[in-house]
Amino acid sequence: MRDEDGVWESLLALRHRGGVAPAANGSEPAEAAALLDLYLPFAQVPRGRRFVVAHLGQSLDGRIATLAGASRWVTGDADLLHTHRMRALADAILVGANTVCHDDPQLTVRRCGGAHPVRVVIDAARRLGPDHRLFQDDAAPTLLLAASARARPGERLGRAEVVGLPCSADGIAPADIAAALAERGLRFLFIEGGGITISRFLAAGALDRLQIAVAPILLGSGKPSLILPAVEVPQAALRPRMRHFSLGHDTLYECIFRD
Fold it and tell me: What is the DSSP letter of 7?
């Protein structure tokens, strides 16, 4: 087993079963030290704490997809591996209906060790049909969050459980989503898309951390990564603490809103 494989297994054990944090004494091989630097804060999140981290992959000019909706692959293999590692650390992975519609993702852990998280799709208006892979493959428990008026008790979409939640004209509130999932023991949430879903969580102050992987490409036009309420002057902008890491040719910027 490679040194970094052993470190990754220790991080998973720390996150999901408790135990001793892997030692970081400066003598580890570079790959193992990089794993500890990036993932140890997530492995150490207390089991009872609500914790929400979101991830976006974008171009240098802030686009997450082309105008036609194509987003595979804006960022490279290293960022794809990173998202699978974040999935393995999380209790649940959360996406919006547009992500499922355009990408038909599996939302499983395949590129690293670790168990599949619970998969959660926000589809307040019930636009999605049952033919998408995550509603059919039975690879992991799957929840569909819909407006209460559009959900019946005990209803399923394919193999997914339909969960009704209060909904306003702006959709289901991020706080209500986090609370409903926490009641099911799903406290560490990893939001993997899309830009609208992550923007709503960010605007609501519902993110603990936001990861933006920036690829060295220019799309020129396309779907923007984040859309937030306008500010009058730069001094009013969000200014979180930051970490940054190299992921192959991409750069990962991590915004820290709460420790």
Answer: H
pTM for the full model? 0.95
pLDDT at residue 230 above 60? yes
Q: Does one domain contain both 112 and 8?
A: no
Instruction: Identify the burial level of 154 via C-beta atoms within 10 angstroms of its C-beta, where 0-12 means exposed, 13-18 middle and 19 or more buried.
Output: exposed
Is residue 232 domain-resident? no
**182 located within any domain:** yes
Closest CA to 15 of 197, 188, 208: 188
**170-190 pLDDT per residue, tens:** 999 999 999 999 999 999 999
**Rounded CA separation 134/118 (Å):** 11
Among 109, 107, 67, CA closest to 193: 107
Is residue 89 in a domain? yes
Structure tokens at 14: 């720390």
Q: What is the pLDDT of residues 100-134, one digit of tens each?
A: 998 999 999 999 999 999 999 999 999 999 999 99
Domain shared by 216 and 105, yes or no: yes
